[in-house]
Every structure is written in structure tokens, then in C-alpha cells.
Amino acid sequence: SALEFHIYFALEKQFQWLCRFDDDQYVNVPLLIDYLRQFEGDSQALYIGKPSWKEPKVRHHIRFWFATYGSGICFSRRLLRTIRDEVEPDERFMRGCIALNYPDDIHIAYLLHTKFNINLRIAEHFHHHIESNLFTNPPNASNIDQAITLGFKGLNVPRFVPIFERDTFRMQTLHCLCTNVVRE
């Protein structure tokens, strides 16, 4: 993560948001852009994502929510400017991860909560691979076009029938469903 922050700061004038997604995610970019438009990234310090646990994390009696990179996380420009000294140079951020024995997604949430009083804003339409019933419950497939992100891992892939040959992980089919593309 620290390198991502470094790259963002080199280009920050061009971008109001830094969003981070895993490589096993589907991201509906038009929906993401529409979602982020409701916020003022230059004036609001926002940390947006979806937790993977049902309970907040606890450290030294401090309870905080963290978003998993498996669902995607977005940081506003205002937030990034606020925490710049904590994440750059990147050695400081990495030392914090090591000292707390936290991976980067948990460490950033802890840092935001304890040092800056910034908490996670939960994005309900961000979905991660840990939501095991996401693709197995048929009613969920009917509103799949509202999902901004969908995480995949192992056998946790959509259970609907693919509309393309060799669409093992249903990504092409999912793209068609999420963007309302009809195959002729």
C-alpha cells in the first residue's frame, strides 16, 4: 500500500480519489464514478469500503472498523493530504504495520481511527469474496447490476450459468449483467 500512496502523491493534482482493488475483483467503473460523485473528495476526509468481519477489530480496548482490500477501498484527496506524513516516506507506514502486526488494510484503518478520528464509511454495494452467499442465493443475482465491486476467490464464483463459452469465472457474463449488455 505504501507504494500506492507514493504514486498517488506524485499525481494527486490529477485525481480526487485513490481507489485500491485486488486483482480478483470485478469493478463496475461507471457505478463507482457515480457513487463517488456524491462526495466532495477535496473537502471531505473519506475512507470508503466494506468490512469483511461482522464485528469491529479491537486493539488496546479501541474498537475500529477496517475495510478489506478484497472489496475495494477508496480514499479521498482530502484524507490523503491529511495522512501524507504517516504514509510517506513508505518506511514509516511499513514500520507501523510491523509494530502492530497488522496487514496494511487493518493498519491504515487503525491509524485513521486513532490518530485522525476518521472512521470507515461503509459502501454497501462493494462486495468481497468472503460474502459466501453473494452468488449462491438466487435473489442476489437479480440485483447484481447494482454491485460496484465483486470479489472472487477459489470456488466462490457466481453460480449462474455463463452465457459465453470458456467463461470459467463468469467474468464476461457478469460484465454483461452489470452493464446491461445483451448478447445478440
TrEMBL record:
Top-rank lineage group of the source organism: Eukaryota
Keyword Membrane: yes
GO CC annotation, single: membrane
Molecular function terms, GO-annotated: glycosyltransferase activity
Residues covered by the Fringe-like glycosyltransferase domain: 11-154
InterPro entries in the record: Fringe-like_glycosylTrfase
Membrane topology according to the record: Single-pass type II membrane protein
Subcellular location: Membrane
Keyword annotations from UniProtKB, A to Z: Glycosyltransferase, Membrane, Signal-anchor, Transferase, Transmembrane, Transmembrane helix
Protein name as it appears in the record: Fringe-like glycosyltransferase domain-containing protein
Organism ancestry: Eukaryota, Metazoa, Spiralia, Gnathifera, Rotifera
